[in-house]
Amino acid sequence: MPLPGDRTVSALTKPNVLERWSEDGAGVRSLAIDDNVITMFDIIGEDFWSGGGITAKKIGAQLRAIGAKPIEVHLNSPGGDMFEGIAIYNVLREHPQPITVKIMGMAASAASIIAMAGDTIEIGAASFMMIHNCWVMAVGNRHDMAETAEWLAPFDQAMVDVYTARTGAEGKQVARWMDAETYMSGTVAIERGFADALLPSDQIKVDENAKAADREINEIRAMELTLVAGGMPRSDARARIKNLKGTPGAATEPDGTPGAADTDLMGALARLAASTRS
């Protein structure tokens, strides 16, 4: 799949997708992990707030460490940077051995692209896959917006082509699903060809500590995108949230349990977001 020439542009997951992952996917993990497993239980792309995130560079290093063996990818992600997702898809497709993708909780947005790299795709009965068009934040006049739309069109078409090749569905139908920002349950994903089989429930667990940590940091990510969508420069949004919150990475305590101050933080962030819309 193609990558943009200008990597300063990010195609992002929308705030409402992050919120849905907090409800349905937070804390979902694998029960057992072998030495040929790559776990993706985070946002796609580098994450300012946690210092983590899933990148093509990290996945490439893991593949080299595993060597020429069959791979399992355990996936539960709300997506993130669509272009980083495309890069990870390309890296996985170059692996010489079969790849099995297991969708533990959610494969949304960029994570759904990564899922398509699987020679076999298994999805939990209560898990979801979500596909949509590239979503970016742009500023300018109508000519700038028209140029942005024209620039994005090939990437949307590339995703249509990948989904179509995997599912056998007609391109126009896939494009309609992307236009509608479509969520598919496990059974629907299988019916439509986005997955091959249901993942046994005994391979999935919910880690309550991880669930609390996932939800906490996801609130910060969603708030940042909300502020930027309201017209605030990303650097300013991060600076304001950082001033309210403290240093990046502090959202995930070692025991994964949010502190009492989190309620005050969320209230302050909500007021900040409201001020940008007024």
Automatic annotation (TrEMBL):
Pfam families: CLP_protease
Stored Gene3D superfamilies: 2-enoyl-CoA Hydratase, Chain A, domain 1
InterPro entries given in the database record: ClpP, ClpP/crotonase-like_dom_sf, ClpP/TepA
Record bears the keyword Protease: yes
Keywords: Cytoplasm, Hydrolase, Protease, Serine protease
GO cellular component terms given for this protein: endopeptidase Clp complex
Coiled coil location: none
CDD domains hit by this protein: S14_ClpP_1
GO biological process, one term: protein quality control for misfolded or incompletely synthesized proteins
GO molecular function, one term: ATP-dependent peptidase activity
Keyword Glycoprotein appears in the UniProt entry: no
Protein name listed in UniProt: ATP-dependent Clp protease proteolytic subunit
The organism of origin for this protein: Sphingomonas sanxanigenens DSM 19645 = NX02
